């Protein structure tokens, strides 16, 4: 009898505590999901990421676009050739989208047409300078760019008395000797592959050795 009363009292206390807890749980306010703040968060996140990549693109030390050869270094651009291999790098799609904002009509010309334009303009510039030996020099050693440079050399043969190309004159002794022995040079540079300071050093070497820079070709 006594034990039954104790058990009854314990069950009553448990039921009371349970009801109290349930009342507390029910009384807790539930915050509603706000689409307004979610959209604002997404927009802020997008702007932060876009701002980061834009700053990274603008503040980078590499050549950003072909026009910079003319604006920054005062060297005319004979033509722009597209090399798809450079678009496969990490964040390539983002970089390409940023580059598209600054893309000019000249950059939309197909490579086969550009190659003929480049050949014609180089031949014309060489003839006007009276030079016989031409060297194709660049600090970018991209494999696809090197193949195009070899093609340019082939197309110039027969129109120019002597034309050669090689590795960067900044770190290759034989290339430096070939440059010095030439009378004029065409710079071969890559967007996102040729650093500003390296291009400047290349220009200084040409001036110090009396080799005239007649123009440039940019790979994008």
Provide a descriptive summary of the structure in words:
The protein has 220 residues and is of the alpha/beta class. Helices cover 55% and strands 13% of the residues. It folds into two domains: 2-47; 63-219, Rossmann fold (3-Layer(aba) Sandwich), CATH 3.40.50. The chain has eight helices and five strands, in the order αααβααβαβαβαβ. The protein has a five-stranded parallel sheet, sandwiched between helices. The longest helix is centred in the first third of the chain and has 26 residues, at 2-27. It is elongated, with a radius of gyration of 33 Å.
Secondary-structure topology with pairs:
Blueprint lengths: L1 H26 L7 H25 L7 H5 L5 E5 L10 H11 L8 H19 L3 E5 L5 H14 L5 E4 L7 H9 L2 E7 L5 H13 L3 E8 L1
Parallel strand pairs: 1-5, 2-3, 2-4, 4-5
Tell me briefly what this model is:
The protein is built from eight helices and five strands.
Task: Provide the descriptors you would attach to this structure in a database record.
220 residues, alpha/beta, Rossmann fold, five-stranded parallel sheet, 55% helix
Approximate helicity band: 55-70%
CATH architecture of the largest domain: 3-Layer(aba) Sandwich
What class would the helix/strand composition place it in?
alpha/beta
**Number of discrete domains:** 2
Radius of gyration, CA atoms, in whole angstroms: 33 Å
Largest sheet report: 5 strands, parallel
CATH topology of the largest domain: Rossmann fold
Distance between the termini: 96 Å
As laid out across the biggest beta sheet, the strand order is 1-5-4-2-3
The overall pLDDT average reads 78
What do we call the CATH homologous superfamily of the largest domain?
Answer: P-loop containing nucleotide triphosphate hydrolases
Number of strands: 5
Listing every helix as H and every strand as E from the N terminus to the C terminus, the arrangement reads HHHEHHEHEHEHE
Bulk shape: elongated
**What is the CATH class designation of the largest domain?**
Alpha Beta
Note the total helix count. Answer: 8
Low-confidence stretches: 85-91
The portion of residues forming beta strands comes to 5-15%
């Amino acid at each position: 009898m006594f034990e039954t009363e104790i058990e009854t009292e314990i069950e009553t206390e448990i039921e009371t505590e349970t009801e109290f807890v349930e009342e507390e749980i029910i009384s807790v306010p539930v915050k509603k999901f706000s689409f307004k703040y979610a959209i604002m968060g997404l927009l802020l996140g997008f702007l932060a990421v876009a701002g980061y990549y834009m700053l990274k693109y603008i503040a980078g030390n590499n050549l950003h676009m072909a026009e910079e050869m003319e604006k920054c270094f005062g060297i005319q651009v004979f033509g722009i050739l597209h090399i798809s291999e450079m678009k496969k790098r990490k964040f390539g799609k983002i970089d390409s989208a940023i580059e598209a904002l600054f893309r000019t009509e000249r950059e939309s010309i197909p490579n086969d047409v550009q190659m003929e334009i480049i050949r014609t303009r180089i031949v014309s510039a060489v003839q006007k300078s009276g030079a016989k030996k031409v060297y194709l020099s660049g600090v970018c050693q991209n494999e696809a760019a090197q193949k195009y440079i070899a093609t340019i050399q082939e197309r110039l043969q027969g129109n120019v008395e002597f034309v050669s190309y090689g590795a960067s004159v900044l770190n290759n002794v034989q290339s430096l000797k070939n440059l010095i022995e030439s009378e004029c040079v065409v710079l071969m540079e890559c967007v996102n592959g040729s650093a500003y300071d390296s291009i400047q050093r290349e220009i200084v070497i040409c001036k110090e050795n009396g080799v005239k820079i007649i123009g440039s070709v940019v790979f994008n």
